[in-house]
Amino acid sequence: MAVRKDQYRWKSERRDAADRNNPATLMARAASNYACQECGAASNRWMGRCESCGAWNSLVEETTSAGPPKGLGRGSGHRIKLVSLAGTTDEAAHVPTGISEFDRVCGGGLVPGSALLIGGDPGIGKSTLLLQATAALASNGVTCAYVTGEEAIAQVRLRANRLGLLDAPLYLAAATSVRDIVATLDIVDSPQVVVIDSIQTMFVDSLDSAPGTVAQVRSSAQELIRIAKNRGLTVILVGHVTKDGQIAGPRVLEHMVDTVLYFEGERGHQFRILRTVKNRFGPTDEIGVFDMTDHGLREVPNPSALFLGDRDASISGTSVFAGIEGTRPLLVEIQALTAPTALGTARRAVIGWDAGRLAMVLAVLETRCGLSLAGQDVFLNIAGGLKIREPAADLAVAAALISSITNVSVPMRTAVFGEIGLSGEIRPVGQSDIRIKEASKLGFHRVIAPKGNAAASPETSLTEIARLEDLLALLADRGNSRITSVS
């Protein structure tokens, strides 16, 4: 019996070896791979966890057509035309939509022959914003088409009726086949602006994978961008986001388009922030502020006054940060709260700011200023649901923390900005004059800024500090030296 098992095992091993050396078997194996649906990384075998991004159960098998094994082969290509760098080229003309906040983040409007990608959480208002933008364009004589793959035409009409846009000459279509959409757009009188809502619902019938996979999203976007470049159209793609807030699908999708926009906002706030991450025709990191109402999104031309509208300056633990978002100055309120903890490890909760920078500011306050925060729970919040990314908010965060610890409020009508170094020094930041001018316009009479970073204005007094201990001394004078007892 043992001899038969050995013979069977020997024959099986020979057969497996023959299959491994068979060219037909090698070609069949090379014709399929596994692609991660989170990051787009490819693997020749299935694994439970992606080695690139660490996502679980995200590898899906995709069939690829076998290419020639020796590159391009014997065929000859067509020569391309080389031009001089010193030549003249007409600048891309922006077409304003009529919504100034949307035009701001796009660099002045939509550019013919460009592709835009907009992402955001479900229900944040992406479809509402694009429906309002295309309806405004259509009312100004621009031919626009809204292609939806997630809703029926009746549902889009219901939303348009709620927004009061039924009279706009906007074309609607419900389709998911990229071949049909390209055939509709590849004509002489094609629409000038096309919205695809969303790219994850589109599919190319030449691929066997399901809609929403990496191959389908990449191929669908490539075909739509190609028709946009050939016909001079403006294609706006709506993209889903993952739980981490990134646009779902391959990362190459953001490299293929000309502009990448993120629609941000908290469910508990009515404010919505449209942020530019990439723009080939304008500045990056620009923001547009909207207010979500029952009748759609309303523009906020002066977001600083809106974010500071309900502020009570007499309460401790708050400060006003004079920030810059793209090219726009913005004043926001920073709220901090410290409380004794009964746990072994104190909590650090942050909303709207980087938790790593908060840990750094707390460490500098303890080491350089002598404030004891080890037994204190620290909560930090950026009022209005705004997310701040620039390090110039360090000094305003420190002012709010010191105010909360000592129960001494920051002086009224005072704006703060500056970057904190690990040694406690206050480093200069960019565009200080614009920050001070915005604070002066909103009635702030005093600005605390890094030393030698900006010039004072006639309406606003400038208090320059070089180290974090100087800020501590300023608040100590206001609180009758109560800070010195906290150590």
Task: Please specify the SSE layout and strand pairing.
Layout: H1 2-21, H2 23-30, E1 32-36, E2 42-43, E3 59-63, H3 100-105, E4 115-120, H4 126-139, E5 144-148, H5 153-163, E6 171-174, H6 178-185, E7 193-197, H7 214-231, E8 234-239, H8 252-256, E9 259-264, E10 271-279, E11 287-293, E12 296-299, H9 303-307, E13 318-325, E14 328-340, E15 348-351, H10 355-369, E16 376-382, H11 394-406, E17 414-416, E18 419-420, E19 426-427, H12 432-441, E20 446-450, E21 461-465, H13 468-478
Parallel strand pairs: 4-8, 4-9, 5-6, 5-7, 7-8, 13-17, 15-16, 17-20, 20-21
Antiparallel strand pairs: 1-2, 1-3, 9-10, 10-11, 11-12, 13-14, 14-16, 18-19
Distance between the termini: 83 Å
* CATH level 1 name of the largest domain: Alpha Beta
CATH architecture of the largest domain: 3-Layer(aba) Sandwich
Number of helices: 13
CATH superfamily of the largest domain: P-loop containing nucleotide triphosphate hydrolases
Shape: globular
